[in-house]
Write a structure and sequence with these properties.
The protein is of the alpha/beta class. It has one domain. Helix content is 35%, strand content 9%. It is built from 12 helices and 10 strands. The chain is globular. The two termini are 15 Å apart. It is found in: Membrane. One of its GO terms (molecular function) is glucuronosyltransferase activity. This is Glycosyltransferase family 14 protein.
Length: 371
Amino acid sequence: MKKLRSYYSNARHHHNHHHSERRWILFPIVIASIFAVFLLFLTTLTSPTGARLLPFTRPVLLTGSGSSAFVESKIKPRPVSSLPDPPRFAYLISGSAGDGKSLRRTLLALYHPNNRYVVHLERASSPEEREDLHGYIRNSSLFRRFQNVHVIEKANLVTYRGPTMVANTLHAAAILLREGAEWDWFINLSSSDYPLMTQDGSAWMALSRPFIDYCIWGWDNLPRTVLMYYSNFLSSPEGYFHTVLCNAEEFRNTTVNSDLHFITWDNPPKQHPHHLTLADMDRMVNSNAPFARKFRREDPVLDKIDEELLNRGFGMPTPGGWCIGSHENGTDPCAVIGDTDVIRPGPGARRLESLVTSLLSTENFRPKQCK
């Protein structure tokens, strides 16, 4: 526990004085990654000559120490000539009072039939707003067909202080594990987040399923010990998962120091993100980040992202290779569904490749891991 106490001290010092230097502590999401998936990115994105190769494979988690390996039980050997399965994501999308429509929009922008989604409107939202969200999801023929959107009907109390946000995240993770569906990565977002690239070909770094298993089951009791400690923090989400990652032997060498968001902060003290507008569009795209925040509800910049980056029509999911219907006259191409394993990477895939390459560079990877 000496190392754990030392990390707590460092985390507290970091939170007060170095928010701008260690961007991977970010409210309200917690983003980390597993080393092996980045190796897969590099080996599958380009050949030694720079030629484009196969899409991303589903990840196998290997520890940095080499003492153990986690392999998902359902992964089976494939012939060399076979195309790899694309990774699958499990999302928690949370909203506060008045965020019902924004949550629906973020859900549609992120939707893919092979992913899993848990959506939650906190207890401060009205019963009418929560019922409106539930009805929208219940009545969607797309969501009914794939049964991959779960609504937390008994709303949790979520505040911006204390451990309630961590508890809500762990609740959603437990639901996703209990459902038993196949997924590889867990991503925690709010309704004020928005994607800058499509789901096809974009393996966004997140908390791996083996790590989520570890946080829920806590076979060496570390996750529960850290959770009790962080229950005394004002901003538990800014340190809980990071502390568990950096003190678990099988995970501490597997982190990548990035929050994967484009954010503009107040200066000083860089604690509150500015709302993004049309004036930020070029900088968002040039950041190569897969997400951006913070957006006002229905800001015009969201329409520009839909049009230029996602090719998404109003009230429609972001189209991917699984959507084979017509685009003519504003019709929804996802109204006709093809093979959900077919992916059609958009321009964001190349931006993501550049970001991953930078994160794995000599100066950015090992020197910025857990200390």
